[in-house]
Amino acid sequence: MANIQYMEEFAFYQQLKFYYDSNRGKIRSRYNDLTKKFLAYNDKAENPKAFLRKPQFEALEMYVFIKEFMDNPQVYEMFDDWRNHRNKFSDASYYSINKSGQIGLFDEGIETVTDTLFKQMKQYKESYPNYIYALTMGLGKTILMATCIFYEFLLANKYPKDKRFCHNALVFAPDKTVLQSLREIITFDKSLVVPPEYARVLDANIHFHFLEETGKSLHTIDDSDFNIIISNTQKIIVKKKRKEPKASDILFGEESLLSSVYGEAMIATDDVWDESSLMDNQRFKKLCRLPQLGVYVDEAHHLFGADLEKQIRAKTSSKTSLRHTINMLAEKTSIVACYNYTGTPYVNKQLLPEVVYAYGLKESIRNGYLKDADPIAFENVKDTEFLKIAVSKFWEKYGGNTYEGLKPKLAIYASRVEEAVNEVKPALEKILVDLGIPTNSILLNVGNSKYTKHEDIRNFNNLDVCGSEGNEKQFIILVDKGKEGWNCRSLFGVAMFRNPDSKIFVLQATMRCLRQITDENHTATIFLSQENYDTLEAELNKNFNMDIKDIKNDKKSLKSIRKVRVLPPPRTITLKKIRHEYKIKENRYYEPIDFKLSEVDYSKYESIMYEKNSLASAASTKVTNIDYIRDKVQYSLFSLVGEIARYLNASCVLIERIIKESVDGEEVVLDRVNNYNEIVNDIIIPNIFHALYNIDIELHTADKEIVLLKEPKGVGYYEFLAEDKLVVTNQDKTFTPEQLEKSFHADTYCFDSVPEKECFMQYIVNDRVKEIYFTGMFTSNQGDLSIQYYDPESGRIRLYYPDFLAKLDNDLYQLIEVKGDNKIDDIVVKAKATAAQEMAVASGIEYKMYAGSDIMNSHILDYLDNTRKVVKYSAEIYQENLPIAADESTPYGTKK
Q1: How many other CB atoms are found less than 10 A from the CB of residue 814?
Q2: Domain 364-557 has CATH 3.40.50.11540
Q3: Which of 484, 755, 851, 879 is the one with CA 20 to 30 A from 386?
Q4: Of 821, 834, 818, nearest to 758 (Cα)?
Q5: E strand or H helix that includes residue 383
Q6: Can the peptide bond before residue 48 be classed as cis, meaning omega within 30 degrees of 0?
Q7: Where are the domains of the chain?
């Protein structure tokens, strides 16, 4: 029974993410330099202006991790290595994580589960790697797909012989609606996700092919690179013969005279001899002549699971299915991998084994990437009554508002065209007249040219275009429209009374209103009949493993949006700006270099094979060195000298002399270099560089006035999401006027943790503290108080924002950082502390780092020898005792 429970909570993609997060520094240190630059450009922690949202960037990180660190394996191979702690996972911890985020010991109790999943994965494997990236609707799967393709092409251009990278991309859409949305790949500004200097390289080399029309040929050059073909499955599918061959088929068949003269490529060997099948076959054959093909399937979940199970999972799918077409391509050309982008990792509550990253609906709502939603069900009401209540509530809640200049929209779904035209529209017009709303705000889009004209389609496409006629349409009557590929961010409500033929349509239609608009968190409203409400709950449970109550953002009970305003006057401090100047001075080569190649640990360069005769056997795993399979560059002295001289821009004669005169000797150097190519860059070049050059470091400092908090641009406040118990404002009656004067350069402080708040409380009540400001919540362009530091994990310069700035009564300033006990010894935290300490010493101030437990369990300012005892109130006690606090004449934190 325990095994079954664990299986429901087990997700391999979470184990991958846990492993990656635990070893992020080590993993990223092994990437190519170009990859590091690409990731840094898209990482908001390193580039505050990065375009990708957090879920998109995390998915990109996993994409690169599987590609460059794991070497593009099948998912079942990764899973088998992980569960057996071998190969790349040989040093993994014996902890795993469940779906609720709880970490537990990887014990013997889950072996049955992992065996079952391993068998499933292996049973459904294809001849090529197959990965699923599950990001819920509205998170930007198309942009993520484009970013992954751009990354592939950049790396393929840099390393053309590396078989892991795609040289061409085939993008599949399930239908015409989604196909049109994929045009964004073509029009998307690459410089948003690709460093500008590399974006220009892509623009010069990429060839787009958009197969929109049925009779359109694919015009790619055989064996060419950097083609992106965008199509739906019907444009590529290969059609088999369905009738006996005619005389013409025999005459022109592959065994005919004409075949031997013109070649197989000119003959439609597998198809019925007609124009449409010939065109399909032409596209397929052109694709077969493109090397290193990556296949990208958009909206792979098509119909939220039904088609995914049929097309990606089922082995008995029809021969014209998407999966069969991809398999046929794999037989004819080299497919690097198939990347499936879907809205959910579930099919009937079962996690799909090939999922390598997922960001679900519940997470997206909680973290503000989608609108919140308020589902309302109605029972025992008539159609017209339902419509009147829905429209009235919608107008009352959203009617007079605009969002980014867009008017809020309500989608009203009818089950049939006749119902929409003859019942819904007349009833809606009467309701709008009663409410004083113009009836020309109605838009009818029912897929019938008799009722929906070209102008209506144009307005439907312009619903999110400011100043357009489409933006004026606020009540959209639909029949089976807008399921996928309809991205209307100004949609704030959905009304569905009649039961549609498809249950999944209820889920698809209601989710249309969740797309985010503006930087604020908004709540959409979903109006449903009780039956449709029950259907929605069932479909959420089946496809997202969540209940309908979960669609309501439960963060509201924990967190709320706070509008934080800057309080005058501007608080400033003068600190030393530190600049390191590195000067290279040439040295004269005068003595042999000792590379110490005999002392090098070569095990980190070795290729190892782990072999076990039987899974059921208790026999130990055999470890074998298989360096012989590696593709090594064999250097001669001539070529090695040329490589090093080119890298250092040094004389070839001098480099040759250095190698020949080295303590290790020419033969040993060449032997080690040819066995382990990596030591050229790791050992040989660095040692020669330090022998030929000397680096002098000069420290320069300059006074710089720092503004702690700047006025926001364009609006009067900043917005933060915070738990109510971690918020302190300047209106708090428990503070004395003297205490308020010490602090609050903003009217509201939103702390991240209880120890942070406790630290603030202990400082503000202490008589020896003249000023205390919480600065950790303000980053990026909000304030100037930041410290540059070298991040040892990413190898890049980044910015660090201390938590507090305090001034004591002796005019000594303190920079203060609060850290969880488990983070104190983290290498990145230490790097931040080192940089802050250097700046603090140069500026004549003090840098202090407090562990969370020290703050909560002691009086951290006792060392100041207060004249009166400081009474510690933890943040929780402070909240609990607030109603019975001492009278206003008694300062918080002191006893009478």
Answers
A1: 18
A2: no
A3: 484
A4: 818
A5: helix 383-398
A6: no
A7: 128-244+278-359, 364-557, 582-613+622-698, 708-884
Q: What is the pTM of this model?
A: 0.64
Whole-number Å distance between alpha carbons of 31 and 475? 51
Q: How many Å separate Cα 396 from the centre of its chain?
A: 37
Specify the CATH number of the domain 708-884: 3.40.1350
Integer Rg of the chain from CA: 32
Question: Helix 75-84 crosses helix 12-22 at what angle (to 10 degrees)?
Answer: 60
Q: What is the DSSP string of 582-645?
A: EEEEEPPP-S-----GGG--GGGG--EEEE-S-SS--PPPEEEE-GGGS------HHHHHHHHH
Q: How many CB atoms lie within 10 A of CB 785?
A: 23
Q: Using one digit for the tens of pLDDT, what is the confidence trace for 50-96? A: 999 999 999 999 999 999 999 999 998 998 888 888 888 887 765 55
The amino acid present at 1, given as its one-letter code, is M
- The average confidence (pLDDT) of the chain is 81
The β-bridge relationship of strands 372-378 and 293-297 is unpaired
CATH topology identical between 128-244+278-359 and 708-884: no
Q: CB-based contacts of 690: which residues, under 8 Å, 6+ apart?
A: none
Residue for token digits 């991809």?
326
Task: Classify domain 128-244+278-359 by CATH number.
Answer: 3.40.50
Contact assessment for residue 465 and residue 471, using Cβ atoms and an 8 Å cutoff: yes
Give the count of alpha carbons within 13 A of 302, CB side only.
Answer: 22
Inter-axis angle of helices 666-675 and 637-648, nearest 10: 80
